[in-house]
Each structure stands twice: as C-alpha cells, then as structure tokens.
Amino acid sequence: MKKRLTALLLASMLLLAVAACTAKDMQQNEERIDIDLSGLSNTLVFAELQNIYASPQDYIGQTIKINGPYFASYYAETGMYYHYVLIVDAAACCQAGVEFVWKGEHAYPADYPDAQAMIEVSGVFKSYEELGQTFYHLEVEGIQIITDPL
Amino acid sequence: MMDIWTTLMYSLTFSTVQRALIATPLIALCSSLLGVPLVLKRFSLIGDGLSHVAFGAMAIATVLNLTNSFLLVLPVTILCAILLLRMGQNSKIKGDAAIAMISVGTLAGGYLIMNLFKSSARSSNFSADVCATLFGSNSILTLSTLDVWLCAALSVAVVMFFLLFYHKIFAITFDEDFASATGMNAKVYNLLLAIVIAVVIVLAMKLVGALLISALVIFPALSAMRVFKSFKRVVLCAVIFSVLCALLGIFISIPTGTPVGSTIVAVDIAGFFLFCILGLIKRRRVHP
Question: Is residue B81 a contact partner of residue B194, using CB atoms and an 8 Å limit?
Fold first, then answer.
C-alpha cells in the first residue's frame, strides 16, 4: 500500500514537472505574450474568453495571442468597420468575436484579410468608451494570415 | 498525439483548468455516492427532473444578473425536491407524473424567461449561456474561486451526510416499510436524502449540464452493480468509477476541444460496457 502511494505521488509530481517545463518552453518562445490562446482547443479558448469578459478589468494591459477566422462588421451609428477573430465553442452552437484594432493607417477592405481567412493576432487588451458604453479590444501591431478562406 | 499532449500540458497551467480539476472529482464523487441509493430506490429520473428545475432557477438568476447563481438555484432546487417528495406521497399526482410535470414545466419556463428578458441580462451571449447550462459544453471551465470553495464545502457536507447516515440510507434504500416498522422515521430520512440530491444536482449541473446529469448519477451505480453485489462494495466501486471517468473525460476534452459534459458521459458509457464484460467474465468464473 505504502509503495503504491509513493508511486502515485511520484507520478503526480512528474506530471506537474512536465506541465511546468512545457509551459516554460512555450513562454520562452513568446516572451511578450501574457496569455497565449493560440495553441488551445476551442473548448478552453471559449471558456477563457468567458472568464476574460466576466472580469475584464483583471486582464487590462495584458498581451493576448489568439487565432481563428476573421470577420468584419459595419456599424451604422458610428460609421465604422469593426474587426474580429471569431471563436466557436465545442458544441458549435455559440460563438464569440474578439474585437481587435490594427495600429496605424489601414484601409478596409484593401489592407485586411478576406472574410473567414484564418488569422493570428496578438495585442494588448484595452478598454474604450463608445456611445456611452465600455467595450474591450486587442490593440494589435499586425495580422498574420494562417490560411486563406476556402 | 504529441500535439495533444503538449496542448494538455500547456492547458494545465491555466487557473481555470486547475479549478476545474479540483471541482470535477468532487462533483463526480458526490453524484456517484448518491447514485446507488437512487438507482436502487428506482428514483433514477429524479435527478433529471431536479436538473430541469435548476435550469429554470439558473435562467431567473441570469436575468436578475446575480453574481453567484448558486444562491438562488440551490434553495429553489431543494424546495422542488421536497415538493416532489410530498407530491409523490400525498397528492393525486404521483411519482413519475409529478417529476415529468415539474421537469418540463421548469425547463420550458426557464428557456422562455431567458428569451423574454435576455436584453436585461448582463451576459449578452444568450445562446452560450443556454448551451453551457443545458449541455455543460464548458461551464466547468468557467468556475470562479468562490464556486470551487462552495463546491468543496457542499461536497464535504454530502460525504458527511452519507457517512453519518450510512445505515439509515441503507435501510430506507432496501426496505422502507421495514425501516418504518422498526421505529425509524423514514419520511425524515427521505426528506434529507431529497435535500442532498438537490445539492448534488446543482453541483453536477456545472460539470455535465442540466440535460446530462442523470448519466453522472446512474452510470457509476449501474456499472458497479455489474461486478459487485454488496451495498458497500457497489458504493466504493461507483465512487472510484465516477471520479476516474470524469477526470478521463475532462483530460480528453480539454486538448481535443470536445464538449466537456458529453465527453464525460461518453467515457461513462464506455466504462459501463467494460464493466458489463467484466461482470460476465466474473459470473462465468463463479458458475462455469
């Protein structure tokens, strides 16, 4: 019994050590990224986004990396286009758009990817006020196209 | 395969996953603990009925923008559990009809309320709320630290209840009339059992969703019964089975991206068939 408990304890410690090493390796590759959601499954990304939007103040100023299909929408009241990375949950019944703004002067649609193109962005999570409401977006330096739409 | 392993290891560094990994075995333990008396008492579907009640209460909590929905969902579900028990004993609407009535009534009512008042809810992601509550697609991964503490406290209460009243539960499970005849107040213990079931349902809803809770209650008990025959062994086996299946399910779900609730139930089903085969082998050895 004692031997089995020791073996179980050692196995758990090994698992935690491997997890810590893997996380460290990934963080070393992306030094400036606070939260890297790009390598996670949709289930976890969707859950993480729910957590972020449930308490956005905790994430302000953090650099978040995310990938997914790109889409843009026009809002008549502000006369502007808004750009999003679309995240679909595991059950495929729900989706959430993570808004991003591309720093600098960029024209839509000429400079932006095609709708549904798979993109990856990383940027600082910030809040902004518009029409009397608080919204949140990522301020990104660039957009990396992973694959073009089918 | 390596990618899945790397993703899993990286996912384990997220606090949301760590919280889920604390809550999952606790919920699995509690639901399987009570699953055995429920299955033996032929109350398997009471979990289904109460989970629908909990969904209705959750809808109201969402519309009211309550910070911690547990505070509303728990008392309402307990109240309905007592009501169901009372209706089963005294009223003209008995047993399964009472469960069916409350079950569909609260499910429909909850969905209607969420639809009517979705604009007043803080969360504008209406379909995500419904999806997570009904099917547990990812709700276990959105637990707050307070949720985990609440989950741990309620789990301790459920285990304590089971240990303290083990003999009473055993008596009312197998022969309620005999237990009453020996001077035991069976009604009180049935009432206590109903309250604890309601607590477990509210806890389990976060793990597998309202529509899949019965699986968490039934499969561990039924699987253990394929192999073991004594009450104590069945309970112990059901607990180990449930905890292992729930952990395996969540470990599969996180890196592969499948919905958490249905993955856990799928593992439970696979485990059930495995135990059916083990049971057959065991019987052939005893009676060749």
Answer: yes
